[in-house]
Amino acid sequence: MNLILIRHADALPIGANGSTCDEDRPLSDEGWKQAADLGNAFLKRKITFDLIISSPLVRTMQTTLKIQKVLGIPDSLVEARDELAPGGRPKKLARCLNGLQGSSIALVGHQPDLSLYAGWMIGEKDVQLQFAKGGAALIQIDGSVAKFGGLLRWLITPEWTMS
Predict the structure, then answer these.
(1) Closest CA to 103 of 49, 66, 56
(2) Whole-structure pTM over 0.70, yes or no?
(3) Which of 42, 75, 82, 118 gives the lowest tally of CB atoms within 10 Å of its CB?
(4) Are 101 and 77 in contact (CB under 8 A)?
(5) What Å distances lie between residue 141 and 4, 51, 84, 100, 122, CA to CA?
(6) C-alpha distances out from residue 162 to 43, 86, 129, 159, Å
(7) Has domain 2-47+56-162 been given CATH number 3.30.230.10?
(8) What is the reported pLDDT for 109?
(9) CA distance between the termini of the chain
């Protein structure tokens, strides 16, 4: 299975655009562009997903929506899961993922959680992957999702979408 971990794109601060808490922060104009650019970069490189799982927070759902639309992925292949909300636990996420079908699954979430998930999967507890807003990483998993069960294949920044 290929897991593509995607950090949400740039979001507005609390208080902007009527948001009153972190969970409700929407994407900024730059964030919408980052998400569209990332989706277009995936499209250009023929990277697609059997399923997209997102944190339920507004900024991750909006990032997911833009990527979904660019890639033409139907709504039935998109889910919001609490396992990807800030503060989620790697073992709970692994249980969720191991119950899913698909060879290429995108996970749209937050920092520092994505870095922790990636480190857990590749077996480096203290890994310091820096997911830029609108950045992504591919972790290849042979078998089930488990600690030490993955291999980091690439880590990209929003600048990658320009190439």
Answers:
(1) 49
(2) yes
(3) 75
(4) no
(5) 11, 16, 18, 14, 9
(6) 13, 29, 21, 6
(7) no
(8) 97
(9) 26
Instruction: Give the type of residue at 105.
Output: I
Q: What residue ranges do the domains of the chain occupy?
A: 2-47+56-162
- Count how many Cα atoms sit within 13 Å of the Cα of residue 82 in the half-sphere of its side chain: 1
pLDDT at position 77 is 96
- In SS3 terms, the chain reads as CEEEEEECCCECCCCHHHCCCHHHCCECHHHHHHHHHHHHHHHHCCCCCCEEEECCCHHHHHHHHHHHHHHCCCHHHEEECHHHCCCCCHHHHHHHHHCCCCCEEEEEECCCHHHHHHHHHHCCCCCCCCCCCCCEEEEEECCCCCCCCEEEEEEECHHHHHC
With a cut of 70, list the residues of the chain below it in pLDDT: 125, 161-163
